[in-house]
């Protein structure tokens, strides 16, 4: 059984006079011990998907339908009391701006101990301190960080503190939402290595939301490509990124510097995202796709198997694109 099973998930943001279809009938699953990178350009629905899984969207401004099963339990209809036990414990998250997650006027150790005590009311002061020091060590931070304030840490140290916070309650799944984006490449590389080490040591499963394909290529076992809220392609990262079956994935790869060192001119994808307040009957990528035909504009293509465990959402001309890939 998959640890996370997303079925037919849709998210509409409710605006005055209309709806923005941010995520459109997405289905994905994440097996225990694997790491799934979610990629796509800004506005593709990646972060909305993560927020919907964490049930962090305000029901007054977003309508969420479909199903999100985590470890066998439905999250979308889970009672609040149970959700509080699951979220931030079995299911944790690390966001981009770690500074925002920390109080600037309290020491790191104190605020982490407070978070731990909230979920473990039986733990005394010594037990809270011991657990905080343990997770700080796990992310390679010195014991002295316990006594420091957030402004005394570098960006990389802050992000390590955020990762330590997410590990406090022994989660099974951690969602990283652009968690390494603001870091310089050296620190980003170090933190990605730490994350992979922790995964092995602690048996974590990871969802990595990022616009940076190199993050997925170097640290994820699987990749899902979103465009305009729809799932375009999903499968093993090495296969999908080397031989993309979907024209949008191929376009993303052509716009990204080669990961193997070979020099080639970068090519952008012409055009821009469609208006997500409109219902698009056919393939949502058709206005930008070099292979588009009339058929693409009239019927929304379904996910098709490229190989076992690898699906490309859709292309009416899948075989042709693969042959040229
Ligand atoms: Fe391009 Fe048509 Fe495939 Fe859409 S369905 S990606 S428009 S070829």
H-E string? EEEHEEHEHHHHEHEHEEHHHEEH
Which shape, going by the Cα principal axes?
Answer: globular
Oligomer: single chain
Q: Give the total of beta strands.
A: 12
What small molecules does this complex bind? iron/sulfur cluster
Average of the residue pLDDT scores: 90
Q: Give the percentage of residues in beta strands.
A: 15-25%
Cα gyration radius (Å): 21 Å
Helix percentage range: 25-40%
Alpha-beta content class = alpha/beta
Strand line-up across the major sheet = 6-7-8-3-9-10-12-11
Q: What's the number of helices?
A: 12
pLDDT < 50 runs, ≥5 residues: none
Largest sheet: 8 strands, mixed
Distance between the termini: 33 Å
Secondary structure: elements and pairs:
Layout: E1 4-15, E2 18-30, E3 35-39, H1 46-53, E4 62-70, E5 73-74, H2 80-86, E6 91-94, H3 98-101, H4 108-119, H5 125-138, H6 155-167, E7 173-177, H7 185-202, E8 205-209, H8 213-219, E9 222-227, E10 230-236, H9 237-242, H10 247-254, H11 294-298, E11 303-307, E12 310-313, H12 318-324
Parallel strand pairs: 3-8, 3-9, 6-7, 7-8
Antiparallel strand pairs: 1-2, 1-4, 4-5, 9-10, 10-12, 11-12
Helix pairs in contact: 4-5, 5-6, 6-7
This protein binds iron/sulfur cluster.
Iron/sulfur cluster (SF4) is lined by residues 247, 283, 285-286, 289, 291-292, 296, 301, 314-317.
